[in-house]
Amino acid sequence: MKKRSRAWICVLPLYIFTIFFVAVPLVYVIVLSLLSRDVTWGVTGKFTLSNYARIFESSYLNVFKQSLTVAFLTTLITSLIGYPFGYFMARLPKKRRSIVMTFVIVPFWTNALVRIYGWIILLRSQGLLNSVLQIIGIVSEPLKILYTLPAVIIGMVYSLLPFMIFAVYSSAEKMDFSLVDAARDLGAGRIKAFWTITFRCTLPGLLSGFVLVFVPSIGLFFISDLLGGGKIMLVGNLIQNQLLTSRDWPFGAALSVVMMIMTLFVIWIYRRITRVKDLEGLL
Amino acid sequence: MKKLLSLAACAALFTALLSGCGSQQKQTLNILTWDGYIPSNVISEYGADNNVNINISNFTTNEEMLTKLQSSEASQYDLVIGSDYIVDIARKQNLLAEIDKTKMNNFNNIGKEFLNQYYDPESKYAVPYSAGTPLIVYDPSKVDTDIKGYADLWNPSLADKLVIMDDARNVIGITLKTMGKSLNETDPAVLQQASEKLNALRPNIRLLDYNNPQEAMLSGEAAVGYMFTSQVAAVLSERPDFKVVYPWEGMGFGIDNWFVPAKATNKDAAFDFLNYMYEPERFAYIAEQIQYLCVNNASEKYLSDAYKNNTALHIPSEVLGDTEFIEDIGTDAAAVYDEIWTKFKQQ
Predict the structure, then answer these.
(1) Domain region containing A174
(2) I want to staple B227 with a disulfide (CB 3.0 to 4.6 A). Which of A272, B48, B231, B284 is the partner?
(3) Which of A147, A148, A251 should be substituted to probe chain B, the one whose Cβ sees the most B Cβ atoms within 10 Å?
(4) The CATH number of the domain where A273 resides is what?
């Protein structure tokens, strides 16, 4: 009995942390989303559901549509690049593996915003990419990549790719490759062995990578602001606008609640498919 | 006995001296402002000359400042800066103290065009500090058309060449100006028309940027820009060959003002410091440092040629003409503006 109560004390800080930094802000956001905006500044205590109703206006629904499109494209491209990368990284000998891993991690030592500014310099019409393309003679006029949707996707993929790589890597590394040998012994071809054994075993990693990339890509507003030239509006930008420029906190809160529900939905699907409770790549 | 008396007198004198010293304790002046909005040497020189401790606290947005003013912290600040619209809100909430002009002689030097504005109709509470008007700036070598006003931004020859500020009120505002309406229009039917007109501007827009539009101009990414005064000034200081347009439809205006909170504990020190900053020569220096329009008429003769030749900073008052402020328009109209802007952005 005594032992149990002591164990409870050990996890107490964790509970306090969760209550103060997760539960309380969450309740605050939900309550805020049900209030109405004050005439000049702040909110009034008047209860309303109109903030949620407003989200269903076509212009705001379109923001969600655009955001989901960007998120899907980002996730698709990161999967196509990240899956083989993570898989082969797990198969490398230990020494080389750690070198490759370092290369993936090194960019994280620099602030994300600085790296995105780097992309602006690379992609602008008088930037490095266009100069090289023009010198080689591939294009005669500078390509206008910066401030378009492809530029936003490039920035998103660049920022989120490591999450996919490490998620796939962690499940590929745990995989027992003798299973593949067994399949081959029993007569399966290379492709069949990959599909039935390797892909199945690494699917949880791929799917957790999917979640880890998809969820933040809805909210990374600074990438669409900087590389999209403010012309591409994601849900994250919309929320930022409500809080900082429109001063409509309740509407911003309602948007945040809807975004959280979307996120929970993605995680719910992930759990239904993989039947695991944790995000494997998250460690 | 005589000796004793003189000794006692000496002692008395000595203690009087000491107590005199005690009453001249160092005063403290607490200022709440944007980072870097007062040149640091002005602060340190005033502090040294007047034996005053100056504490500077910073805020990043007007809204943050107002929140501080409304909280119990309010008494911690003696002098605060804020933009026009937020001064209006603060004044209506009785958070401001009247400026004692008998303690601020230099108030009389402030230009008439900056006084008696909507946020302080009798100029009782706010001291204009820096003024600015968003302007159009362009690279003549890349633009074939002659730009005279906002309406020219819609010219098809400017396809994909514009950088404009990422700000709903300003951009919808200039659209309204091209229709002969006010920056603060609230009629839904007019706003609907403005929405359609604004959407037609979209093909011309290379990018929207609130904080650093000058970079797109300087890197050649955009050929025409619509941005705030200090940003236009920054463009011009690197590229004097670029042209500035004072739009004929009428210009928007913004003024940042000093004010003393009603709860301030050291109001006199605040007035004294204001008076010090508004000394003509010193204020000319300040205007050049912060790169805004100089509101102090008496400073004119102290301004450098570089400042006077910068057409974004030195705008004659007759050219400035009928300026208009972006004012608070109420929640319903604000929601319409937000929807127009969201639609415009996602085409």
Answers:
(1) 63-282
(2) B231
(3) A147
(4) 1.10.3720.10
